[in-house]
Specification:
single chain; 150 residues; mainly alpha
Length: 150
Amino acid sequence: MILLDEVEVKKYPNINAVSLGILQKPAKVYTPAERKLRTAEELHWYSPLLIPLGGMSVDGMINSISGRTAMLKKELKVERKEYLLQKIEYMFKEEYFLENLKIPKDYLRGFWYYAIEDPKLVEALNSKNKIMSRFIFSDLAVKYLEILKN
């Protein structure tokens, strides 16, 4: 046993696979629905040929036959829309929609669901362009209020 007088602990802030030279760029981070879909989709034209050699799992083939892959694609679309709703809640306050756009409080969530179907708004939210999002929201609010009147 060796007794030490002092132990100095240094904190290295940026140790990761890129800084160590293992990867060229940071690894892509997948959402839970994207991970499930990637796992279920791994079926190539040569995959059935590799089964006798033990080179491929049968999951990809079974998922494509059973329709699970199609279900996971739908789940991925729903997850992306949920993320967009979270972005709207994060980027804008409820007062903006209630006071500026005159959306009734009871229909606010309905307006958000209506708005995320617009591809221009989706692009603006994903690029974090708050000013463009405001313009698109104002156009959509006029259309949405007309729908409510009818």
